[in-house]
Amino acid sequence: MRNTMRSSSCLALYAQIDLLTEAGHLRRLSAAFARFIGSLGMESPALMAACVLLSELEGRGHSCMKLADLSGAVATQLGWQPEWWRDLRASAGGWPQDVAAWRKLLAASEQVWAVGDLDFDQPLVLDGERLYLRRYWRDEKLVAQAVRERALGEVMAGDASSSIANIRHWLDKLFSHASRGGGPDWQKVACAVAVRGKLGIITGGPGTGKTYTVARLLALLFASAGSRRDSLRVALAAPTGKAAARLKQSIDSALEELDGKVGQELPLRELASRMGAARTLHSLLGARPDTRAFRHHAGKQLEVDVLIVDEASMIHLEMMAALLAALSAHATLILLGDKDQLASVEAGAVLGDLCFDAEAGGYHAETLNYVLDASGISIPAEYAGKAGPIAQQTVMLRESRRFGGPIGVLALAVNRGDAAATVQVLRAPSEGRLAWMDPALPADALQLAVMGREGAPGGYSHYLQLLKAGAPAEQGEAYLAWVKTLIAAFERFRILCAVRDGEWGVHGLNPTIEQRLQSAGLLRRNGEWYAGRPVMVTRNDYATGVFNGDIGLTLPDPARPGAMRVYFSDGDAVRSVLATRLRNVETAFAMTVHKSQGSEFEHTVLALPRESNGTLARELVYTGITRAREFFTLLTPNQQVLLDAIAQRTQRASGLRALLQD
Ligand SMILES: Nc1ncnc2c1ncn2[C@@H]1O[C@H](COP(=O)(O)OP(=O)(O)OP(=O)(O)O)[C@@H](O)[C@H]1O
Fold it and tell me: Which value does ipTM take for this structure?
């Protein structure tokens, strides 16, 4: 009886949810989630609608839903058409008027734990004016508490004055040059700040020297470790294998160069040789098949003293919570990343939240005095302020060493949201560095794939011609050297898409590029696994050791005539898997901007779709542009989509920022 009554009040809503799901506007998961919550207690249409919206927002990376957004902003966040929103509201019958009414309704629901009330482990959590899935609420609390404790914790153990003198000695040695722009040397400041506590956050755009700085920070940490120097355990990690390999390579070469500089005083080369390979966060934490739990956690922490994590913008909330739980209180955590890049695909915008004050600085007098003593640098008064504890341990690098020229200017204009300047840079002469195809046709993308463009020739022919020239006759090392050359040539060019579906999405472009390369005589497709097929792994596979986002090239197996293997670059090494063993892969001539994070290509092409779907934002365009090392080409079938994207910032609902600032 109760069930029938319960369901009948929600019949119209469920019918509407089903319609929206069938039309592809809702994830099937969202409807199932709402029904599941409904099965746990009294169903009310407004609660069920809130569940559907919360689940949709989670799918877009939001860790919670602000009740204030239920008056309409949610529809914009989801990129919904006005009529979908209108129909959903109408089918719910009454829609709570305001935040207070929503709070009252949710707090009275037996499926919701209103923080402060008795906790029955309900699946939904109402914290102030935000509604959460319980695990995200828990993760936000954990991350906030752990980073605050680190930032507020012990600074400068031992005899502080002698420690500071030692830091000053080493910083002067490691940063013997003057800052180029005449302003403070933020790289030196970043090292001083990071070495004083258990948390250091270094953010900055591409080429601002994050890795350059962290190599010096590492030397400084060794130098300040005193008698513990020889046993200092340092681990390097990043969200993807590729980013981890890049981090390791850059740190190794920077330490090599520094070794000459520091001389006998610090056996840097020897200390660095004990560091081991950089790992993905999954591998560092000990991911296990078929479970979200890691081998390392609060009860079995990582055995490291210093953990350096690159590309931190890609770390999602759940991963950051797991990482912080697994890191002991005595260990130093250094996060590197570009706060303005796209946030993780999964929920959370952790680096963005942590770096909220990074641009302004917001340094307390205590921080300013410490930096002056430890580095001799007087941070200008405009960066003084009253920001929270995390900001005191955060430094933004502001001068790009590598990323000057038109691409750098374009990235800055987009990052500022300056549409006029963006169009101006795109239209200005750039000696071939930049090209803007507007309005673009899919044929332009195909042409770029086959031969590049004027000023940036090649496209995918770079590696396909090498492939055509053939493998060396010998197997073994000679074959692997050839594979490495091919992978490096493939990595020179890439087409990035803002979306997955449609003619301008990866699903549309990949098959047409394949066909075009074939008709140009650059590819010989004979079946699914043909020589030269680039693939991206779409799901972690522990059996074959390949992970979501890994990119490999399909090539003949030299040991087995007729068989194909997929070769993945692994730092300096190459590993391979028999092609037929790879189950979750897709062709990767075109890939999404999201998946391109942590990679750079000599020539990057960014293709925007014809229609704005409301979710394209500035961070996506900025991330796409900053994947280009030498040449950038923008394809816009409709210029307005670019302008709309630049005008829109990704605002992910999260309570983390507020928790960090308390
Ligand atoms: N202070 C400096 N003096 C001289 N060269 C520098 C300095 N800082 C950075 N560089 C050089 O600038 C280039 C870019 O630096 P680096 O790779 O560290 O930047 P990054 O911020 O880590 O870039 P990415 O965003 O690609 O990770 C490197 O070649 C590096 O050696």
Answer: 0.98
